[in-house]
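The authors assume throughout that readers already know how a fold can be written as discrete tokens. The format is easy to grasp once an entry is in front of the reader. For illustration, here is how one protein appears when written out as sequence plus structure tokens:
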Amino acid sequence: MKTVSYVRIAVLLICTLLFFNTGQAQMESSSELYRTILKLDSTLFVDGFNNCELKKMEHLIATDLEFYHDQAGLSTSKEEFFKAIKENVCGNANKKPIRKLVAESMEVFPLYNNGVLYGAIQNGVHEFYIKEANKELYITGIAKFSHVFIMQDNIWQLKRVLSYDHQSPEE
């Protein structure tokens, strides 16, 4: 008899959760928010990381950026972030790192405060390559990432970064 009651309660609970679920699902790739985050990604990585046009991405980085990297450690400011980009990514034109987003891996989740959009989470996978003179671009690694973008004074800014699960391409 007790088992039947527990089963009824469990079924009722599951039905209630399914019916009243108010959580936000991943945004469709055709949505305005998804396209906005994709454009921010392009500015940060195509313009900034790949082409070293750091001025184009400067306004997109929050002053109190926190960047958690599973191999390079923690960076806790915009200044640290740009110093690392200048030295490690843009410092050697003869062996230039290139980042490519694995497009079908990107997910965008909105962040709301009482129904008002204030941010977004971007998850995905990116591949890293090296560009050398007179050589084909070659892959050096792949990793997962999560970005938290916050809207501040109608400007999107990258506030938190998780870069993890870095692997060699042959793994």
